[in-house]
Write a structure and sequence with these properties.
Blueprint: H1 4-19, E1 43-45, E2 55-59, H2 75-88, E3 92-95, H3 106-115, H4 117-121, E4 126-128, H5 140-150, E5 160-164, E6 168-172, H6 184-194, E7 202-206, H7 227-240, E8 246-251, E9 257-262, E10 265-270, E11 297-303, E12 307-315, E13 325-334
Parallel strand pairs: 1-5, 2-3, 3-4, 6-7, 7-8, 8-10
Antiparallel strand pairs: 2-11, 5-6, 9-10, 11-12, 12-13
Length: 348
C-alpha cells in the first residue's frame, strides 16, 4: 500500500492534470477550427454487419497502464471486464474517456492495445471519447498525437459520429474542448442532430465529464457537472422535445454508476472500468439508489421492437479469486411514436 504522503502527491498530480496546473498547454487551448468536423456520420456500420438483436456496451475510466500500478487502477478488474465484454460480443463498445492513465505515456496506450486484444480478435467496433487523462502531460498537442496514433481512424478529429444500422446513431464528444453555444463542437453537434436520418430512433452521446450527476457536497466536489457540460444538457433538453430520436448520454469521470433522466434525456455515469472507485452521496433524483460499493461495471443496451433494454452488470466481489457479474440495474428507453414529434431541425 502507498504511504499517505504518496497518495496525497498522486492525488495532487491527478488534480493538476485535470485543471492544467502542470500543463504548458491545455486541451482547451488547442485550436479546433481546423479539425475534421463534417456533417453526416463519420463512420457507418451497415445493417447487414450487425447482429440480431443489435447491442451496444458503454463504460469508461479504465486507466490502462502498467499492471504493477494497483493504486490508480485495478488491473485485474480492468482486464477481466475487457474479456467479459469480448465474450458478450456487442455490435459497438462506446468508451467514455480516461482510457489511458496518462496520455503523455505512450506505453499506457501499448498496454491498452495488449489488454484489448480480445476485442480485436472478436472484431468489435470500438468508439472512444477523449477524457482528461488523455491530456495528462505538459504538452496537450503531443497527448492528442498519442491518442491519434492509438486510434488512427480518428486522426484530425476530437469529436465524431457513427451510424449503426438504421435505428442507432452514436456521437462521441470531447468535453476537454468547449461545448458552449457558438463553439466549433456545439455547432457541429447541432448539425449532426438536425441532420439525423429519419430512421434513427436512438442517439448515444458519449463524453467524459458528466452533464448530469449527483451533486457532491463533501467528497470529489470538483467532479460535479461544470458549465461546459451543463450547456450540453440544456441543448439536449431543448432538442429532445423537438426530435424523434431518444437521447442516451453516457459519461464517466466519476468512478461509480449513476442514472438520471432530465427533460426526457437519459444520463448515465458509467465510470466503473477499473479506475480507483469514488464513493457517491446519492441524491433523490438518482434512479440508482443502491449503496453497494465499489461499482465496477459496464452497461449493455439491446435493441428491441419499441425500446432499448439496458442492464448494468456489476462485478459482485472485486476481491474474489474468480469474478462474476450481477444485473444490478435495469431500465428501458422507449422509442417515441413517429406521429408524435414534428420534424423540427436542431437549433430552431
Amino acid at each position: 500500500m502507498p504511504t499517505r504522503r504518496f497518495a496525497f502527491v498522486l492525488s495532487l498530480a491527478c488534480a493538476g492534470a485535470a485543471s492544467g496546473l502542470f500543463a504548458q498547454s491545455r486541451a482547451s487551448d488547442l485550436p479546433t477550427s481546423q479539425l475534421l468536423s463534417q456533417p453526416g456520420p463519420t463512420f457507418t456500420v451497415k445493417e447487414n454487419q450487425l447482429q440480431s438483436p443489435v447491442s451496444v456496451i458503454t463504460y469508461g475510466d479504465m486507466r490502462f497502464t502498467y499492471p504493477a500500478n494497483v493504486t490508480s487502477t485495478n488491473p485485474r478488474v480492468r482486464k477481466w471486464l475487457v474479456q467479459q465484454i469480448a465474450t458478450e460480443h456487442p455490435d459497438a463498445v462506446l468508451l467514455n474517456g480516461d482510457v489511458p492513465l496518462a496520455g503523455d505515456v505512450k506505453n499506457d496506450y501499448q498496454v491498452y492495445k495488449t489488454e484489448t486484444e480480445p476485442w480485436r480478435n472478436a472484431k468489435l467496433h470500438v468508439f472512444p471519447a477523449l477524457g482528461n487523462h488523455e491530456f495528462h502531460g505538459p504538452d496537450a498537442q503531443q497527448c492528442l498525437e498519442n491518442w491519434w496514433n492509438a486510434f488512427p481512424e480518428m486522426r484530425n478529429r476530437r469529436w465524431y459520429s457513427a451510424q449503426l444500422g438504421a435505428k442507432i446513431y452514436s456521437i462521441a464528444l470531447d468535453s476537454d474542448a468547449s461545448l458552449l453555444p457558438d463553439s466549433d463542437q456545439a455547432k457541429w453537434l447541432n448539425t449532426q442532430l438536425g441532420g439525423l436520418p429519419a430512421s434513427v430512433d436512438y442517439v448515444f452521446i458519449n463524453l467524459h465529464h458528466p452533464p448530469v450527476a449527483d451533486i457532491q457536497t463533501h467528497i470529489e466536489v470538483d467532479h460535479n457537472p461544470r458549465p461546459n457540460e451543463i450547456a450540453l444538457r440544456d441543448l439536449l433538453g431543448r432538442l429532445q422535445a423537438q426530435l424523434h430520436a431518444r437521447f442516451i448520454v453516457s459519461a464517466g469521470h466519476i468512478h461509480n454508476y449513476e442514472r438520471h433522466e432530465q427533460d426526457g434525456v437519459v444520463y448515465l455515469v458509467s465510470g466503473g472500468g477499473g479506475a480507483h472507485p469514488y464513493f457517491v452521496e446519492r441524491t433523490k433524483d438518482d434512479q440508482f439508489q443502491s449503496q453497494l460499493f465499489p461499482n465496477y461495471h459496464y452497461v449493455r443496451f439491446t435493441l428491441q421492437a419499441d425500446r432499448l433494454h439496458a442492464v448494468m452488470y456489476r462485478i459482485v466481489d472485486p476481491e474474489a479469486a474468480n469474478f462474476t457479474v450481477d444485473a444490478k440495474d435495469t431500465f428501458d428507453v422507449i422509442a417515441k411514436p413517429r406521429s408524435s414529434v414534428p420534424a423540427t431541425a436542431a437549433g430552431r
